[in-house]
Amino acid sequence: MPADEPTSEIRMINVGGKPVSVRTARATGRLVAKPDTIRQIRTGQLAKGDPLATARVAGIMAAKRTSEIVPLCHPLPLDSIDVTFTFEHEGSIEIETRVQATARTGVEMEALVAVATAGLCIYDMAKSIDPGMAVTDVRLEEKHGGVHGDYLRGGPSS
Predict the structure, then answer these.
(1) Which of 111, 116, 128, 124 shows the shortest CA–CA distance to 51?
(2) What does the alpha-carbon distance between residue 157 and residue 131 come to, in Å, rounded to a whole number?
């Protein structure tokens, strides 16, 4: 194989030698929908039930199972997972997750998977009234802990 072609070798990074420390991450995303759809979601008026409570549980469950979804993530004993929703604009729901673990590797992927899954859960529950919804802008906002240091979107290390 020529030197400029990527190898097909895939491996999980060995984190055994890294120190255990408190790791935190915060991720955000957005569900964009028609204003009437957002009102129905906010008031829990969907045929399938309360979308926000269901999405919160789905996000928590997804964070706990990230290593089963993203192949090279390590399974982590998570200390806490928080999933919140805010309604800053009439045509969207802001989704935020905060994840913490005392571990050898970070929890960025757990926070991102929780945001995406919470958004997809709401989409599933409201798709019959608004199939044009979109889950957008899923991104890491900040992370703390570990040998690579802290990250804050828009901060000096961004």
Answers:
(1) 124
(2) 38
Is 119 a member of any domain?
yes
The residues facing 134 across adjacent strands are 32
pLDDT of residue 157 exceeding 60? no
How many other C-beta atoms are found inside a 10 Å radius of the C-beta of residue 103?
Answer: 21
Q: What is the pLDDT of residue 140?
A: 98
What's the pLDDT score for residue 2?
59
Q: Which of 50, 82, 124, 130 is catalytic?
A: 124
Q: How confident is the model at residue 146 (pLDDT cuts 50, 70, 90)?
A: confident
- Residue 89: the pLDDT is 92
CATH number for the domain harbouring residue 112: 3.30.70.640
Query: Is there a catalytic annotation at residue 50?
Result: no
Burial class (CB in 10 A: 0-12, 13-18, 19+), 129: middle
Residue 15 lies in a domain: no
